[in-house]
Automatic annotation (TrEMBL):
The lineage of its organism: Bacteria, Bacillati, Actinomycetota, Actinomycetes, Micrococcales. One of its GO terms (cellular component) is plasma membrane. Residues 20-265 form the ABC transporter domain. Belongs to the ABC transporter superfamily. GO terms for molecular function: ABC-type amino acid transporter activity; ATP binding; ATP hydrolysis activity. This is L-cystine ABC transporter ATP-binding protein YecC. Keywords: Amino-acid transport, ATP-binding, Cell membrane, Membrane, Nucleotide-binding, Transport.
Amino acid sequence: MPTPTESHSPAPAEAGTPVIEFTDVEKRFGDNVVLKDLNFSVARGERVTLIGPSGSGKTTILRLVMTLEELTGGYIHIDGEPLTHEQRGGKRVPVSKKQQKKLRTRIGMVFQQFNLFPNMTVLENIIEAPVHVLGQSKQEAVQKAKSLLEQVGLPDKADAHPTSLSGGQQQRVAIARALAMDPEILLLDEVTSALDPEVVGDVLNILREVADTTNVTMLIVTHEMGFARDVSHKVMMFDGGRVVEEGHPETIFTAPEHERTQKFLGAVLGH
């Protein structure tokens, strides 16, 4: 695990409309309540890491923002605009698919399992959405893709297919693909958990560079506590679908107040 250091940039001001806002969010799978009465917001440029045991609802939060799961109750707003549901005439009603699609183009997600298209080359994977969703010219998209491949250390892999790459290389391509959309929000879901231990550091260093050199808002789920401490402005401890504690990473990792946080970090960090 990388040596923890303090976050490189100050937390953004909370003033203004949050980039992501959860209001009374509930998510059920059948009788299983995964999230209940969830209320929190993320400011523009803020990097927030969700920690906690498996099954505590962290990944579900990212999937709701990406509209890969449907809200059971409550509301999510992106830049003040309703993502999937809104209040209209005193009732909770779905927003249009057009509205949902418009907001989704501002959100990028890097998944645990890469999710690259195996029948496409690396370059084709990266330019697919910028060309067909954002309407970029192929020339513009290719130029940006090659620049991103340089950034993630894979300039010679443009014509390779994902199946010929290692897990660490595939994840770096997935990061480049997400960044190709110039997202306002970047969601990171356990991006190192499927990787061999020796390449975890390489992938985390790329994400550290993204955090240091852009103002993208990040919502992160990870078990890499050194990374969480290094890049986050705020850490939120989840258990049973609820936030049990939140605060500055230095406070959460050195002096957590809640007994559940203390036990979790004690188990994960080995003390």
